[in-house]
Specification:
By secondary structure, the protein is an all-alpha fold. It contains 4 helices and no strands. α2 packs across α3 (48-55) and α2 (37-44) packs across α4.
């Protein structure tokens, strides 16, 4: 029997100013999509370890993998000047 997915709320603050902010958005999107981490990792074409690092704001993730996850989960990243 699979463990239940605990849905994470989307952060109220839409501005991403550090890795932890982005991590919260990624986890919220995955859980709101009812995806287990292993299913989401497969969908995005990355390892479970990589997705876990992104969702916990750990170092060691390359930019290509990050963008695979963002695209796979339907998250658009926009850049604006300060």
């Amino acid at each position: 029997m699979a463990r239940p997915i605990h849905v994470t709320r989307t952060p109220a603050q839409p501005d991403i100013t550090n890795p932890k902010d982005l991590a919260m958005f990624v986890r919220a999107r995955r859980t709101q999509s009812a995806l287990r981490i292993d299913d989401a990792a497969e969908l995005c074409g990355v390892s479970v370890e990589t997705l876990s690092k992104i969702e916990t704001a750990k170092s060691g993730v390359n930019v290509e993998s990050l963008f695979k996850v963002l695209k796979g989960l339907g998250i658009q990243l926009r850049v604006k000047p300060w």
